[in-house]
Amino acid sequence: MSKIKFTKEEKEIITKKIQLYFQEELDYSLGQFDTEFLLDFFSEEIGSYFYNRALYDAQAILEKRLETITEAIYEIEKPTDFPR
User: Fold this and answer.
1) CA-CA distance, 41 to 21, in Å (whole number)?
2) Model confidence over 26-82: pLDDT tens digits?
3) 15: how many CB neighbours lie within 10 A of its CB?
């Protein structure tokens, strides 16, 4: 997996959310540098777990859809003497 990279705008939004969380939930004020450092840490050390979970979820959805398509194909299949 390649390194998770955020655009400048995405990074600003995420860092603001982190700062807000620390302020509201922990009554602790994080500076911009510390917040970006924390975001980089999470991205590098924990991001893979979220990324992989998203892949597993996407795979499950695709498998379910493929099953539906396969069933639809069997429904329109014409009978022949050939075994399946």
Assistant:
1) 17
2) 999 999 999 999 999 999 999 999 999 999 999 999 999 999 999 999 889 888 888
3) 19
The encoded tokens of residue 79 equal 């009978």
- Residues 28-40 pLDDT 10s: 999 999 999 999 9
CA–CA–CA angle 56, 4, 20 (5° rounding): 100
- Helices 47-76 and 32-45: crossing angle in degrees, nearest 10, is 50
What is the three-state SS of the chain?
A: CCCCCCCHHHHHHHHHHHHHHHHHHHCCCCCHHHHHHHHHHHHHHCHHHHHHHHHHHHHHHHHHHHHHHHHHHHHHCCCCCCCC
CA distance 36 to 17: 11
pLDDT value, residue 83: 76
